[in-house]
Specification:
The protein contains three helices and no strands. By secondary structure, the chain is mainly α. The longest helix has 28 residues, at 28-55. Residues 57-83 are annotated as: Disordered.
């Protein structure tokens, strides 16, 4: 059930909506603010990603047969425990 004040408020919004030219509606200030916030969030995420990617340090294994022998020599195979 709608009160009298909410009905009065809705009638004011309806008259404001009719006064706009529907062919010239633009996003306005709110659209710019939302776009700027999204752009700032993307910038912060990329900055954080670059920081984390700089921490990654890995060494590629050499190509060929050496990769298998160095891996087996470095970490001897252990048998899994069975319960």
């Amino acid at each position: 059930m709608m009160s009298a004040t909410s009905t009065l408020a809705l009638t004011h919004f309806v008259t404001l909506a009719d006064s706009f030219d529907k062919n010239k509606v633009t996003p306005g200030v709110l659209g710019f603010i939302v776009f700027a916030v999204i752009g700032g969030a993307v910038w912060l995420l990329m900055k954080s990603m670059n920081k984390h990617m700089k921490k990654v340090d890995f060494e590629e294994q050499p190509d060929g047969g050496e990769a298998g022998t160095t891996a087996s020599a470095a970490a001897p195979a252990t048998e899994p425990k069975t319960s």
